[in-house]
Design a protein that fits this description.
Blueprint (H helix, E strand, L loop, with lengths): L1 H30 L5 H8 L7 H17 L5 E4 L19 E8 L2 E7 L5 E8 L5 E6 L7
Antiparallel strand pairs: 1-2, 2-3, 3-4, 4-5
């Protein structure tokens, strides 16, 4: 029984590390000026054709902001993985994991990693006085 628990813990840890490495590799490719953003998009992101331009704009903006103040990139897992959340927080499907990438002190972004190890970009546009104008994902699943 103890062996089974130890194996389960080890499997969970290895899977968590794999997820972090997938997202970290994506983050390094994203900020690498020698890699075209179109290539990063096609290789790493789960996106719909309708969201392609918005994804490219997002990736370009992140790259520009990182390059203003490059620092060590860190990936952190959300403690609430796979939790169905309400309000202005993030809802996840089964087998999706929420990870945060800290590009620098002023730029930390959430990304979803699905079971195929594809990254889903979150788009959340807000009004100045509060409230959401748009709350969607690069794979076009609307969050409610």
């Amino acid at each position: 029984m103890v062996l089974l628990i130890a194996i389960s813990i080890l499997a969970f840890y290895c899977n968590s590390q794999r997820d972090e490495n997938v997202v970290k590799n994506f983050a390094f490719e994203l900020v690498d000026e020698s890699i075209p953003l179109e290539q990063v998009l096609k290789k790493r992101i789960n996106y719909s054709e309708k969201q392609k331009d918005l994804c490219l704009f997002f990736l370009k903006t992140v790259r520009e902001e990182y390059n203003k103040n490059p620092e060590k990139i860190e990936v952190k897992q959300s403690r609430d993985n796979n939790a169905s959340m309400k309000g202005d927080t993030i809802k996840l499907n089964t087998d999706e994991h929420l990870l945060y990438v800290q590009f620098n002190k002023s730029l930390t972004l959430p990304f979803i990693l699905n079971k195929k190890s594809e990254i889903i970009i979150l788009f959340n546009l807000t009004k100045g006085g509060g409230g959401n104008l748009n709350n969607s994902r690069s794979d076009e699943r609307i969050l409610k």
